[in-house]
Amino acid sequence: MAGHRAAPEEGPWVLSSSLAIWKVGSFAKASGRRSITVILGAHNIRKRERTQQVIPVKTAIRHPNYHPKVNDIMLLQGYDCPGVPGHLLNETSCPLPSAAEEGHPDCCREPPQAAQEGRAGEARMVWRVAGWGRLDLNTSTATLHEAELKIQQDEQCISCYRSHYNRATEI
């Protein structure tokens, strides 16, 4: 991913599938089940940082078209609310503050209307993205990086990626 290293503790706050850690404990081995632990607030995913929150996952629901390499998305329900240690969840989910209340106007905002309507490329918008992992073919990083990317026209993506591009799920 092009861009630059994100400043620690200044956001963007990201939860990535790379942070969904599958741990197999003794109970899990005996029962054949896996447990998922989510880490929130990490800047370097290889170090324990004071900003991190570790939350065990109570329920994980896979996307109907889940694929570990190209569509690795799940809906996760934790046992604790982020930012409220010891507050156990019941059948309702944790209330999430709006971006404006948190003072982070672009961390949680709604996607542009064109993207919601499936026309993400028509205005050549710029979106801020962040994550860990590969910086190029040979270099990876455990430190959060961010970049601004122009949304491409569907035709451009189709010409470059042919059978790998899905206009319904990619922008």
Automatic annotation (TrEMBL):
For this UniProt entry, the molecular function terms from Gene Ontology, in alphabetical order, are: serine-type endopeptidase activity
Q: Which GO terms describe its biological process?
A: proteolysis
Give UniProt keywords alphabetically. Answer: Disulfide bond, Signal, Zymogen
- The Peptidase S1 domain, residue ranges: 33-77
Q: Name one GO cellular component term.
A: cytoplasm
Record's protein name: Granzyme H
Q: What is the lineage of its organism?
A: Eukaryota, Metazoa, Chordata, Craniata, Vertebrata
